[in-house]
Design brief:
The protein is α/β, with parallel strands linked by helices. The chain has helices at about 40-50, 85-90, 100-110, 135-150, 160-170, 175-180, 200-205, 210-220, 220-225, 275-280, 295-300, and strands spanning about 5, 15-20, 30, 70, 75-80, 120, 155-160, 185, 190-195. About 45% of the residues are buried. The model is unreliable at about 10 and about 235-304 (pLDDT under 50). It binds iron/sulfur cluster.
């Protein structure tokens, strides 16, 4: 287990130093990872094998290899992007291209390493030419992401860009509108803070976006310490085996793990294009929301 101190007194150290190194008098402990149980590790391994052999959607015909996801099985912070790109498809690892380098740098800016978090995508196989995911592909692949969330039970899921944000929020509001504002959401029977930010690739096309990403990332450590409201009904599950922090109550108030999934059939009609991809999987999502002044090229990237 690795912990950090969030300092509320000064931004001189970016607000974050390793435990024991801070001399401030009002530190707040941030637990970054827990020790994962053998069941969780085995479950993620089984899931990786299943994803590697998956033929549920046509993307299996064009992929080099599936990209299930990687990171610490006990991570309290999970990142969810859109889909593997060229380099990810070749290497079988998420976020290893230029956008991955930016994500690594953003993590380093708050004192985290990618090995301490878990990184996955909405789709586990690369769409040809990096085109937008299609509704049938999202619907087919969604159970894998839900299973990962249910196993890892992160305190915070940071959604990267429009696709992951709309999928995990069940809302059609664009990332330009909702970035940097935490939401309480539940997926795979697990309640968490959803924290949308722009996709790191956005900074490759719009350098000024890097400052926005840095500002949003800076709020992540504090969010890891904030409690989650518990569901209105239902006793704690007996399989909630993740230990509390230092033997005390879980400061993040994570809900117990559950085997339940929220299944939703594709809907007919509604929004078109990229919005339709998400709305078809989450038919209860709201109407598409205007996302402000974004160029057509940027919007085609699925980043805004
Ligand atoms: S994208 Fe998902 S559903 Fe489609 S083949 Fe790959 S793992 Fe299976």
């Amino acid at each position: 287990m690795r912990r950090y101190l969030v300092c509320h007194l000064s931004s001189a150290c970016a607000g974050l130093v390793s435990e024991g190194a801070c001399r401030a008098s009002l530190p707040v402990l941030v637990t970054v990872t827990d020790a994962a149980t053998p069941d969780v590790v085995a479950g993620l391994d089984a899931l990786r094998r299943e994803v590697g052999a998956c033929t549920r959607c046509p993307l299996h015909e064009t992929r080099t290899q599936a990209v299930s996801g990687e990171g610490d099985p006990g991570a309290r912070l999970m990142f969810v992007g859109e889909a593997p790109g060229y380099h990810e498809d070749k290497q079988g690892r998420p976020f290893v291209g230029a956008a991955g380098k930016t994500l690594d740098e953003l993590l380093a800016s708050i004192g985290f390493a990618r090995e301490q978090v878990f990184i996955a995508n909405v789709l586990k196989c690369r769409p040809p030419g990096n085109r937008d995911p299609r509704p049938d592909e999202i619907a087919a692949c969604r159970p894998y992401l839900e299973a990962q969330v249910a196993l890892i039970r992160p305190v915070v899921i940071c959604s990267l860009g429009n696709f992951a944000t709309k999928l995990l929020s069940g809302d059609q509001s664009g990332i330009t509108k909702v970035h940097g504002a935490p939401q309480i959401r539940e997926v795979g029977g697990h309640r968490f803070h959803l924290y949308p930010i722009f996709h790191p690739a956005a900074a490759l096309y719009t350098p000024a976006m890097l400052e926005t990403l840095r500002a949003d990332m800076y709020r992540l450590p504090q969010l890891l310490t904030e409690p989650l409201p518990q569901p209105a009904a239902g006793p704690a599950s007996e399989d909630d085996s993740r230990p509390p922090v230092d033997g005390h109550a879980d400061p993040a108030g994570r809900a117990p793990r559950s085997a339940g999934r929220t299944e939703a059939p594709p809907s007919a009609g509604g929004p078109v294009g990229r919005d339709a991809s998400v709305a078809a999987v989450f038919p209860n999502a709201g109407a598409p929301t205007a996302v402000g002044a974004v160029s057509a090229e940027e919007d085609q990237l699925g980043l805004f």
